[in-house]
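Can't paste images in this forum, so I'm doing it all in text. The chain is below; anyone willing to post the predicted C-alpha cells underneath?
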Amino acid sequence: MIDNPMEKVDGPGGKTLMIQFNSVIFATDFSPASTNAGLYASAFSKHFGSSLMVAHGFILSQAALEVETERPDSSQQRIGLNRDLLLTAKALSAGRGATETVLLLGDPRKEIPDLARSRSPSLVVMGTHGGGTLDRLVLGSTAEGILRYSSEPALTVGPKVNALLADELKIRRILYASDCTAEAAHGALVAVALAGVFSAELNVLNVIRTSDIDDAEHRPRLQENFYGAVGAIMPQNVRQICEPHTFISVGRPHVEILKHIDEREIDLLILGLRKSTHFGSKSKTSGAFPIIVEARCPVLTVAYDMATLPS
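Text version of the structure:
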C-alpha cells in the first residue's frame, strides 16, 4: 500500500492540510549538474526530518556483464559506481539516520520512480544540465523519463539555480502555475501545504494563451473563471495556512512563468505533470520541461494522479 504525502488532521481551526515526506531520494548521475541537487536533497531531508537515500540506476556494459556472469558483483563498473555513491553520501547529511546508498541495476527512468514508490511518501530530487537548442530546450531523456513515470513529487534543480549554501534552505515565495483543470487540484494541495511548512508567500498564476482570447471583452470573463476555479480547487481552510496572491497573464506560458519567477523572486515553482500510465510511454514532451531548464529556482512537479481531489 502506498502512503499519501498529503494528510488532513484535526487542528484548532478544524481540518488542517499537512505534507510529509518520509524519504528523500537523491537520484544522481555523478555529473556536476547533480551537485547542487544533492545539497537540496540534504536540505529537504533535514527540514522534514526524513531519511535520505542517494540512488543511481545503471545498465551493465558488455565487459562488466561478461565478468559478472562468472563473478557476481565484482565488475569494475559496479565497484566504481558503489565507490562514487559512498563518496556522494558521505558529503550529504540526512534529517533522520545515516544517509543511505542504493545502486539499481536497470534503466534509471524506471528504477528510480519504482524505488521512490516503495519508500512512499517520498520526494525525488535530481539535477539536470538541460540541452538542445535555444528554440527547443530539453531536459534529457533520463530526467524526463523519471518525471513522467514517477508517482511521487519530484524536485528538479536546473542549471540556472544558484548553488545552495549549507543549511540555507530559504523558501520565502512559492509560485503555483495552473491551468485550473480538475487535475490541477493535486498541485494546489501541495502548494498550499508547502507554503504552510515554509511560512512562504504563495503566488497562483494562470497564463492565458493569446490565441484563446478573441477580443478584449473576453478577458474579464476569463479572469472571473480563473479566480472561481482557484477557489474551487483550494482547500477551504487555505487562508488559515497562507494567503494566496492570484495573478493572470496573457502570452506564452513558459515565457510568462519564467518572467514571474524573476520579477517576484520566486524560490520554488510548482507544476502539474501528467504521469505516464506505463513505462516507455511515447507521449509528447511536456511544456514543463523547458521551464525546468530555464528556471532560476527549483521546480517541483506533481503527478496528476498522485492524490484525490479535495472534497
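The radius of gyration is 20 Å. DSSP finds ten helices and 14 strands in the chain.
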